[in-house]
Amino acid sequence: GHLKSDNRMSRNYLKGVEGDHINALLSGCGYNMRKLLMVFLLPYFIGLKIIKFFKKNDVQCMEFQFSL
Prior knowledge:
Helix content is 82%, strand content 0%. It is mostly helical and 68 residues long. 0% of the residues are buried.
């Protein structure tokens, strides 16, 4: 991929040198925010999937024990 398109820096609507600096700063903040969200939210959702998996399998195991 291209660096600008991956970090959503395709068009700068702010004028001048100050606008370029502001755009670069906010793009960096957005990039870091996405990284932080992945670090904190991905384990949370994986944990929910694991809990759901074990709850589902516990019910199946209990049904198997009662059918013996």
